[in-house]
């Protein structure tokens, strides 16, 4: 049962990550979102120029459990 749950979790995480990337691309290219001034404002003010920061956050979010473990390990090893 553990193996089934583990494989399901990996598949769901992978599909969710791909879906998030596709949704982001659709919004960036204006395919999925109607022309709303708020979306344009957010993209121009916050997203443009911060693509790498966004992708880093996305990748850390996808592997949050491992990230949390590394951060805790670093915090305890520095003391």
TrEMBL record:
Domain of life, per lineage: Archaea
Transmembrane portions of the chain: 6-32
Keyword vocabulary terms for this entry: Membrane, Transmembrane, Transmembrane helix
Name of protein: DoxX family protein
Organism per entry: Haloferax gibbonsii (strain ATCC 33959 / DSM 4427 / JCM 8863 / NBRC 102184 / NCIMB 2188 / Ma 2.38)
Lineage, highest ranks first: Archaea, Methanobacteriati, Methanobacteriota, Stenosarchaea group, Halobacteria
